[in-house]
Design goal:
Number of helices of chain A: 8
Modified residues (N6-(pyridoxal phosphate)lysine) (chains A, B): 196
CATH architecture of the largest domain in chain A: Alpha-Beta Barrel
Shape of chain A: globular
Distance between the termini of chain A: 18 Å
Number of strands of chain A: 19
Number of domains of chain A: 2
GO molecular function (chains A, B): L-isoleucine-2-oxoglutarate transaminase activity; L-leucine-2-oxoglutarate transaminase activity; L-valine-2-oxoglutarate transaminase activity
CATH topology of the largest domain in chain A: D-amino Acid Aminotransferase, Chain A, domain 2
Cofactor (chains A, B): pyridoxal 5'-phosphate
CATH class of the largest domain in chain A: Alpha Beta
Protein name (chains A, B): Branched-chain-amino-acid aminotransferase
Strand content of chain A: 25-35%
Radius of gyration of chain A: 21 Å
Family (chains A, B): Belongs to the class-IV pyridoxal-phosphate-dependent aminotransferase family.
Oligomer: homodimer
Bound molecules: pyridoxal-5'-phosphate
């Protein structure tokens, strides 16, 4: 499908922020991609317009009943000046799975990727050149029909906004502590845990506050039924290397199917390193820390790519992993993925898409 | 506390809709109440302004991470022309419990009620005179800070919008069928099921579609852990009369603490009818339908007040309750509550608040 996109350029471009001080999600570019949906016309009026506030009726259903899904991916500048996306087709597929779960209208994969390529091309100057920095891309759909009553909305807005972001941990990989949460639950089988929806984040804020008070950067979520099996970590999937083997929680319906997770599994297979997806009891992981068989632990997600876990806070004490240092495999995966993303390593798996 | 409220009247009032065709949540009045929050100033700039679209940055956190809570209550016109609210203090309290759970700033009870009284006074002409009709009041708070990253927003908007609504079931009480949902789950202990947040509704849309296909108006939710115990019904709490005793699921953290539920329990106590809050297994209820001891079943909620359950659809078949007719206690409760709300019956429990 070729979509026709109307482009209205901004008359006054913003100054670009200092690439050393980008942080995450604080700056937004000059333009945004928008497209509307209603039941009569389907998706229509694809356009790139100046980034500006949008008008919504106070009764717009997104404010009341939570129909809101999103994606997160990045554009990277290569040394030879090209701009690459990392596996946008995977985000497109997950976007549609989220739509389906929340009774929202899907966007075909090609249109989704084309919308992103188009807005990134318009904002090419915003893709940072600094190593480790990138342009974070946030596609989302929200329900706009002004009506009260619990049912799917009849109209929606699809938007893509862009934010230049720094290296998540400033100086590269820095191990973080994670707090095992035993009271609060993020999601449960039969719920919406595997959809990327606003509704999945708000419940976790309280647990995050408690984790911060225990000197932890993130929450490790357990399953909602038995509160025994590991699900994920904050906005990351999680991996453990135990006795030379890598293990990650199997997708069970309440875990987000991360693109970075998929990529890590694939790379490990390529490298001939054993990797399994399975149910993982937190007690087994803590026992492996104790008996020294747990060699490395790391989180995976678009924002930080690979994030070494330095310690697990559980039952009131911190269980230090790999002396709080970054493991060898953790580094190797980080270098491999960020290398492919930035076009520095050969992309033999065909993961990158040129924006040109 | 007395809040100073700036009032800006609309220049062009809308025509009032036909009171026989109001439906639910389709019409909105001429004005709305707004108030802003930021971390420096706290809640400020309370104002009543013409009902109109609001501007939000596309990165406003409500669209991405789900910080959105709401309430629902009604204003009623009495025969002698006064306007009454029903237990708004209960909504104020629940609003703040929702805020607390979702790391959002609370609004003191008095301010909450005063805001509602003020906007309802301005819109007094919108309170329907027709019996059974009322003015539905929707207070809500949404996160407005434009930033990506999972953390509590630093700014919020509190709004109160109003919608004249008809008698929920046109001709008064009409029994509805309810589908027992055994796959999808609304909420789980440790989650946010007892908060009134947008995030709790979106996951249920799919189950609602399936229920509609089975000729059911609502979904009966079971607990997320054992999928065995009854939680609630669509946007209502649920009661069963078995062998002369009334029973309703105990509040367990994943059920909304309904104001109508509280009122029903209180009235039953006043009337000397045994009522218990307990864990209720769906199998026990189905067995009671079968052996004829289940006399009545009804849902409770602000929208429909009391809603007779005519049948439970479970395991592929419909289990008819009380021959599909409205039970005696169900009617008595409906008459009592709607009578107090409309100022027709004596309000000996002090539940109504005059807007004047
Ligand atoms: C809850 C959650 N889990 C896992 C991930 C990781 O997914 P991805 O690797 O696609 O970024 C994310 C998103 O970043 C997330 O929000
Ligand atoms: C999920 C849910 N349960 C129960 C209720 C009933 O609560 P109330 O009686 O306060 O309206 C509502 C709201 O109407 C609701 O949304």
């Amino acid at each position: 499908m070729t979509m026709s996109i109307r482009i209205e350029k901004s008359g006054a471009l913003k100054p670009k922020p200092d690439e050393d001080k980008l942080g995450f999600g604080s700056y937004f570019t000059d333009h945004m991609f928008l497209m509307n949906y209603d039941t009569d016309k389907g998706w229509h009026d694809a356009r790139i317009v100046p980034y500006a506030p949008l008008q919504f009726d106070p009764a717009a259903m997104v404010f009341h009943y939570g129909q809101a899904i999103f994606e997160g991916l990045k554009a990277f500048r290569t040394n030879d000046g090209r701009i690459l996306l990392f596996r946008p087709d995977k985000n497109a597929q997950r976007f549609n799975r989220s739509c389906e779960r929340l009774c929202m209208p899907e966007i075909d994969e090609e249109t989704f990727v084309e919308a992103i390529r188009a807005i990134v091309r318009v904002e090419a100057d915003w893709v940072p050149a600094k190593a480790g920095a990138s342009l974070y891309i946030r596609p989302f759909i929200i329900a706009t029909e002004p009506a009260l009553g619990v049912r799917p909305s009849k109209s929606y807005l699809f938007a893509v906004i862009l934010s230049p972001v720094g290296n998540y941990y400033g100086e590269g990989l820095k191990p973080v502590n994670i707090r095992v949460e035993s009271d609060f639950v993020r999601a449960v089988r039969g719920g919406i845990g595997n959809a990327k929806t606003a509704a999945n984040y708000v419940g976790g804020l309280k647990a995050q506050e408690i984790a911060a008070a225990d000197n932890c950067a993130q929450v490790l979520w357990l399953d909602g039924v038995e509160r025994k099996y590991i699900e994920e970590v904050g906005s990351m999937n999680v991996f453990f290397k135990i006795n030379g083997k890598v293990i990650t929680p199997a997708l069970n319906g309440s875990i987000l199917d991360g693109v970075t997770r998929q990529s890590v599994i694939r790379l490990l297979e390529e490298w001939g390193i054993p990797v399994v997806e399975a149910k993982i009891a937190i007690d087994d992981v803590l026992a492996a820390v104790k008996d020294g068989t747990l060699e490395e632990a790391f989180g995976t997600g678009t924002a930080a790519v690979i994030s070494a876990v330095g310690g697990l806070h559980a039952n009131g004490s911190m269980h230090v992993i790999n002396r709080g240092e970054i493991g060898e495999l953790t580094s190797r995966l980080y270098d491999a993925i960020t290398g492919i993303q930035a076009g520095k390593l050969e992309d033999s798996l065909g993961w990158t898409v040129d924006c040109g």
